[in-house]
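Notes from the pairing session

We agreed to fold both candidates in a single pass and log them together. This is the raw record for the first candidate, unedited. Please don't reformat it; downstream parsing expects exactly this layout.

Candidate A
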Amino acid sequence: MLRSLLSSSLFRIDLRRLILILAVMSAFVTLANSFYASYRVQRQLLIDNTLEENRVYATKLASSTEQFIKSMQKQLAYSAVIAAGHFDDPAILQSETARLKYQTDSFNSVVITNARGKVLATSPDSLQLVGHALTTPGAVEALKERRPLISKPYISAAQNLVIIISTPVFTADGKYLGYIGGTIYLKQKSILNELLGEHFYRDGSYITVLDEDRRILYHRDASRIGEVMKPHPMTEIVRTATNGSLMVEGVGGDQMLAGYAVVPSSGWEIVTLRPTDATLKPLEGLMVKVLKHLTPLAVLTLLAVWLFSRLIARPLWLLARNANEMDNPDVSVNIREIPSWYFESNQLKRALLIGISLLQKKIGKLKFEAQTDPMTGLFNRRGLAMTLESVAQLRQQFSVIALDIDHFKSINDSYGHDVGDEVIKSMAEQIRHNARETDILCRVGGEEFLVLLPRTALAEAEMIAERLRENVESLELPGIRPITISLGVAHWHYLQGDPDTSLKRADEALYKAKQDGRNRLVVSEP
């Protein structure tokens, strides 16, 4: 017996132990919050730093690309001057295209055409385009505009996906002779690949280049070059800013940290992307160090709480004991008599008193909810039964209106149950609108409603019911056909016995209204 008492005392959760447990939980919550806050700060710092690095790097690449394009345009402009002076000499023109092609490897191919687009010279010779008229989009645009251009990607006469950088050829007196252009192959080895391909990272980072139409000019996956990207938050932002950074979702759904910059002369968008997971990988080791610093403080906090819990146990224990007797009518009086000599116990005392008051209100609310229909807020059958019981005890005469939505099943079948629910709610609003403050409104079934009209004669109830029927008939509900209702009206006097008989008579009148063709009112005479 003694052993049993000791055992129960040892494992009993009294208030002092509860405070200690609460303190332990608080310490762990504090530790977790500190750890989480540190994690969030460090995480955001890594993300912000990476975004800024990507922005700076994209800006640098855009600047390098801009310089490279200007360099190529200068080469073409210089060659255009030479070609203008020897436009009738095929050998010199061929020599100039070869020089542009092989001197710097800036272009995959070079072409010179006359004002009608006929190819006069090209390099390499394997293209075999001399004498042919070019009708590709890049050639047509260069001939039309007659100014230095950077074309959009198109399929060349040699069936390569290319962009062409072109410069017009004019004589000294301003006569337009044609143009000289250098192409860059997008899906083969080119100067663009060499310029950007060196910046591939092993951690999953990569670079993408888009033109103004969101067409991919460069990508680590060569199969995606030439693909037009769907509208994306980043591509929309780039149209209003020269550089910046943001978080985006990659093709596989992974979060990516992107920096972007625009090449001024071409309008190309250079985007540098790095997986968020790769950026946050160093965070694991960092958080282990944070945890080591937080743990000693948590242990000291627990020791201090254990000491103070013994001093504050008595008043809190009394509060806890009374908290277990909240169903006692005198519990509020007992709690008020507990000496709360320090702030915390006094606050708990006040909280308990407030809690008891709220509990009593909650019980009242639950009782109300048990008597009402959750969809419409009207009384349900239980609320109706309690109302009838009160009416019978008070011997108070009343009229009753039973109504039903016509062909409600077809509404559910045609428009779905969600629309059906909206029709039910609209019907409840119509009943409220046409009823008086003293009337009792009930939903007794799926589409069935009942209205009790205390101290109301049968003739007056008939007028109210007819007004309700007409209002519902003229009601317009968006997206569905007009609805109608059938109604039955009856009257009850305390000399007539059980008030349930009036409900039955109203229901029978409702049934007859449906048999007679619906959308009508039938009165059950006493």
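Candidate B (folded immediately after A)
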Amino acid sequence: MTPTATGIAPETNSIPTTTTASIQILGEMRPRYDEILTPEAVAFLAALHHRFSGRRHDRLADRMRRRYEIGNGHDPRFRDDTAHIREDAEWQVAGAGPGLEDRRVEITGPTDPKMTINALNSGAKVWLADQEDATSPTWKNVIEGQLSLRDAIRGELSFTSPEGKTYEVTAEETPTIVMRPRGWHLTENHLRFTDRSGREMAASGSLIDFGLYFFHNAKQLIENGRGPYFYIAKLESAEEAKLWDDVFTFAENYVGITHGTVRATVLIETLPAAFEMDEILFELRDHCAGLNAGRWDYIFSIIKNYRGRGARFVLPDRSEVTMTVPFMRSYTELLVKTCHKRGAFAIGGMSAFIPNRRDPEVTARAFEKVSADKNREAGMGFDGTWVAHPDLIPAAMAEFDAVLGDKPNQVDRQRDDVEVTAADLLDVHIGRPITAQGVHDNVSVAIRYIEAWLRGLGAVALDNLMEDAATAEISRSQVWQWIHQDQRTADGALITREYVEGLITRVLGEVDRREGDRFDDAAAIFREVALGSEFPAFLTLSAYANYLTEAD
């Protein structure tokens, strides 16, 4: 543990004044951690928390109220009080910063040294450096991910595996880095914030991830011809977007860079946010590059908000909820139309299929699925897309090259043909059954993912798909909803807690057990979040507090 660092909290562009607001480091200071947790950087974190932690808590309270309202029959709708923003055709967002003009293929992944090097050598246009759903937020991953990024941005990163293999960045042109900090709801328990009144609380994961990356790298990124760019996750309202915009402005002033240097791409991955895309762009307009269709968390958000609203809101097997079902197509078409109207990029979603170099059939299927997915997105007007594996970049690139040609994007393609109503966004009827295999797969994938997450892995290859926390959230949420809505499988079995307990036992018998594995803990977490009478908003909240922080 290091001594408390006092925060500097400039309220304006004037000389900063010292306050009693502070950040205390509770995590172990391992080799090189002092290069990230410098007194100056920790003071910046304290300043961010002094200025914004209260508003963060207000926004989280707003989320709870809105979720309660939806659960009690008040459907989300396009806001009356912001209709003037939607109807004003004149305003535009800042758009692409240097290095973001062409985003046709982006690769996503965690920020450990090996994955960082692989991403920078991948040939993608952009790398989503993920400190969120693809990173298990152990103290080691949080700080050493920052070290990887710091070294990579300065051309100093290399990695030698335990087997003695050396990895280095060899690409002549590396992807533009867009870093994704944790969402507003997540805390960082290894850092503790004390406010001016002496109240102590866990630090915000969002402000920690953003603050450390920005403080250490913003000026170096500008010198490199790029900039401090961010993917913003889990937003639910324009007010949350305004909070991020104010964070960006404050940070720019703090380190002395031009207002608007930061660029943010917002993931539209919650149901409430789908009704406020114009407003989110508007609040972030000085810093906004675009929106992304965060498809997997969007499905999770649908289930979470409508889990108690009756059988008509029950979704079938997870594999049946594709991007071509009506409510998913409506949401993505509205996203493209909204973005292009405002000069913003529309970035497509993750294709989770990955190749298997030992299984040609699996690899061929992955290429086929990815090509079809990216062909659909490019045809809809998206300006780029995500893949999870470097081998899939050429297939995705080919589909966007065929549509874009020499153009860097298709922002000029206005989707005036698209008309999406609130009813379209809420029409979740698919007309497919829940199968016994679908229930089993949800239990199996969730437990296997959670077990890996507890061991510090956030992006995990399961059943030839690259999965992150969103998959576990969908899987456990569906199980919870199926139980509470008295659903049956296609062969007539009632899905009860006892039925699922039998599947948990079966799954624990199917996995390869080894000394030190976390399957028993994973099963306990799954029981808590899928079989309990209450529905936790995120499985990662209690799992982090009760299992990950203690073990780290």
